[in-house]
């Protein structure tokens, strides 16, 4: 069954998400960009809260490292800082770059020590054909397709059905977790579900007035949980 990811900003929102059926509590600051990072102490507070209050072993946490340039030392340092909170998954945005491999080389020793990394690709960007293979070779746990511009557009505005089917098959062919997100709401679930993602992520679509910078709306989370 496809899992439900809800992005939260603090313990109060984590409680709302847990209570209403989120499988993955994702820590992200929507005021700081596509993958804005929360303060480490906030991440730690939420991770501790989820560990104590989750309903079962199938509820997890993830956290983003922020909208960082693809600089190997910078990214590796921030990944280790976030991983030290004991969050289950660390998410890394693959922003525009001429050189992804140096970052992957710096991250491979981290994955070999058991840190579970999720690569976030953006629908608006063009990537090298072999990047998914390279991400797998670096030991990443999963890959997520998101949007960089939070303007209401979704990955479906950039990928045809045939392209998405191929993309999903490549990720799952590597036995990586596969996530889909980016301005999604309840009306998108039927279309998104055909790609059989491991999880679907929401922020704006479960927030007041569908605005990702506003507070979570418990009624919307419950409705999406019911559909999934």
Automatic annotation (TrEMBL):
Keywords in alphabetical order: Lyase, Schiff base
Coiled coil residues, start to end: none
A Pfam family recorded for this sequence: 4HFCP_synth
GO molecular-function term, one example from the UniProt record: lyase activity
Keyword Lyase: yes
Top-level taxon of origin: Bacteria
Keyword Lyase carried by entry: yes
Top-rank EC class of the record's enzyme: lyase
Active-site residues, record numbering mapped to chain: 28 (schiff-base intermediate with substrate), 91 (proton acceptor)
Entry's EC annotation: 4.2.3.153
Catalysis performed (reactions): 2 D-glyceraldehyde 3-phosphate = 4-(hydroxymethyl)-2-furancarboxaldehyde phosphate + phosphate + 2 H2O
Biological function: Catalyzes the formation of 4-(hydroxymethyl)-2-furancarboxaldehyde phosphate (4-HFC-P) from two molecules of glyceraldehyde-3-P (GA-3-P).
Name used for this protein in its record: (5-formylfuran-3-yl)methyl phosphate synthase
Organism encoding this protein: Methylotenera oryzisoli
